[in-house]
């Protein structure tokens, strides 16, 4: 179990978020308010209002028919960009692996290197993560929404990195400001979602904010982080329902114990 890689599904999205913080810090991308038309110039005018931030907060407004519709197509990016805009960008959250896959495509265009290469150089190797797989689409773009497999101890390292505000062995791998943005829910989209991280409603304990945020993958994969308590909790499971979900277990038996 310890040495086994696990499909972490949508935890991949939270790793994508980290990579964008790094890419912005390194100057590959100006900031998250850059329109996606900088990378996809031939999109419709209404789609030119979509920014990287809209993709990160799942508020692009693009229709999402689901992975089952995208996966059989030969060109995932083309499929996503051809979807109609249903709502004004930035006004409504709609969870979509399409948004995340566009982020991976943008990162590859901006850095001129494969997402996996960029991640390995700037995130995984510094964390001592060597044993992972990140699968790609037919165009060689790392699957931004669900393509990563990792070991439990490496999921823990990623969680500890966020618990320490992006610092690892005295090196600031991810800007602390990016961490804060990522774990702050987006009020415009009216959701408990930041930049590809979920947030819980926080409360005050001893006069300080007691806030938990988490990465979540379909089927019961979780990385819970609470900076105040210096707590990182990993769940790997295979659940088809939420009757006894790790989220409820974490809240009832770990967080509120």
From TrEMBL:
EC nos: 3.-.-.-
Beta-lactamase-related domain residues: 3-240
InterPro entries: Beta-lactam-related, Beta-lactam/transpept-like, Diverse_Enzym_Activities
Enzyme class at the top of the EC tree: hydrolase
Keyword annotations of the record: Hydrolase
Pfam families membership: Beta-lactamase (PF00144)
GO MF term list: hydrolase activity
PANTHER family cross-referenced by the UniProt entry: BETA-LACTAMASE-RELATED, BETA-LACTAMASE-RELATED DOMAIN-CONTAINING PROTEIN
Protein name: Serine hydrolase
